[in-house]
Amino acid sequence: SDDMTSLKNLKFEIVSARTVESRKHKKYVAYTVMVRVMDEMEDSHPAVLERRYNDFLSLYNALRKDFAIQLSTIPFPKKTIVGNFSPEVISSRCTGFEAFLDLIGSTTQIRCCEAVTSFFQERELIDALKLIRDKQYYQAIPLVENCFWVMNKLQTDRAPAVLRNLCLWMCVIGESGDPCAVGLAGLAVRRFQGVSDSELLRYYVPLLSTTIELCRRHEKDAAPLVEHLESMIRRGI
């Protein structure tokens, strides 16, 4: 189902924090966020990403425009002039960030908005697309896979970001020659069958064509997909 009731119960944890020093950036603390689905079964694909204080602050400020009432229920960690790297400040911020993320996870409108989508995937997608342009497919795979899993947890199975990431993951694995791409392609085709969004449907015919090509490359039966694609073309879709 693609309605909002199919959103999953999530647990957000700041599992670690490390101080980063580089020539490009001033010294800062990178917080590792783990996102897991909470149910009877253990989540076999927890998503992990690193964000710094300014990333959380930018998201908080973006959300305040539309969700000020909801955000007023939690205290967001304040900027400090000194002491950013003290264990006390880092520990306090971890607690504050978890409360902030829990609020996002428990509020459907916030969870599915553009600012949250960007926070959880934009940096990794940009890095992955650079690698893909350089034909470094193996290096891009874990980034794209993580983007898929984090959005698949945050949003519904047929949400645009989820389907786009699934198609990208399938293509990158396909380019690497891994036969697992056939299984991902099958999953993408099944999920697209319930889609009515015209913006998303423009991906469907290219998806079918790519899936047929992958099936043939890995000696799988493509006949039902060929028939389905030809039927769509005859109907002018």
Automatic annotation (TrEMBL):
It holds the Pfam family PX. One of its GO terms (biological process) is protein transport. SUPFAM superfamilies: PX domain. It is found in: Early endosome membrane. One of its GO terms (molecular function) is phosphatidylinositol phosphate binding. Keywords: Endosome, Lipid-binding, Membrane, Protein transport, Transport. This is PX domain-containing protein. It comes from Rhodnius prolixus.
